[in-house]
Amino acid sequence: MDVAGKVAIVTGGGGGIGGALAHALVEADAKVVVTDLDAASADSVADALGDSAVAIAGDASSDDHIDAAVRLAESTFGPVDLYFANAGIGRGGGLDTDEAMWDLALDVNLRSHIRAARRLVPEWVERGGGYFVSTASAAGLLTQIGNAPYSVTKHAAVGFAEWLNITHGDDGVRVSCLCPMGVDTKLLRPEDDSATPDQKLMQKAVETAGEVLTPGAVAAIVLEAVADERFLILPHAEVLDMYRQKGADYDRWLRGMRRYQRSLA
């Protein structure tokens, strides 16, 4: 898909990968609705992009917010062509993670994708085209040391993107799934000092596994993949080798991950 002249919604667009995607889309002559839970951040990104972007604040997992973002896009620019389900949450830990945090992770990292697809895909099928880009994580293909909710929900996000591609790919709906390792965002490196021991372990595991990329570098790779209509987007090429090793000998891979976890202590 050539994004020039297309209308896109980017969730979690107030910074990080989402903010970089909004900038990259506008640079490619697309129109963008920037959504974020943080109104000031969303406004800041949209203001920097001029008339090619507008902002709306809200919860990316809320049906009402998703509908409001779609209606804003339609009234300002026209029908939505691309939806970047990019908002994510990295909080959580091990078996002591409470039910409220599990619910939040499931809502933001998974159900937000399902609800957005439910809102847009039927219209795209009728129109014969549309593009859904899911931001998952390398944790969705491998795992995430130190964070059970993140690992589980990112696996689920990959599974939903696969299902969506298989089920509606022949209807003209294109689907890509972004699975990076370390990206220099607040999710990886919070600005405050409130990180728990599990979160610090997660950060150390990610930072030592490979290069930490800038959001701008990831956004450029995403738009290249969209142009090619490629499903699996791997900004870190080594993730594919890791994924193959996992599938080739699961038990050996698990033993290796336990050794890696011990080395981080």
TrEMBL record:
Gene3D superfamilies: NAD(P)-binding Rossmann-like Domain
SUPFAM superfamilies: NAD(P)-binding Rossmann-fold domains
Any one GO molecular-function label of the UniProt entry: oxidoreductase activity
Alphabetic keyword roster: Oxidoreductase
InterPro entries: NAD(P)-bd_dom_sf (IPR036291), SDR_fam (IPR002347)
EC code: 1.-.-.-
Family listed: Belongs to the short-chain dehydrogenases/reductases (SDR) family.
Name the record gives this protein: SDR family oxidoreductase
Organism expressing this protein natively: Gordonia amicalis
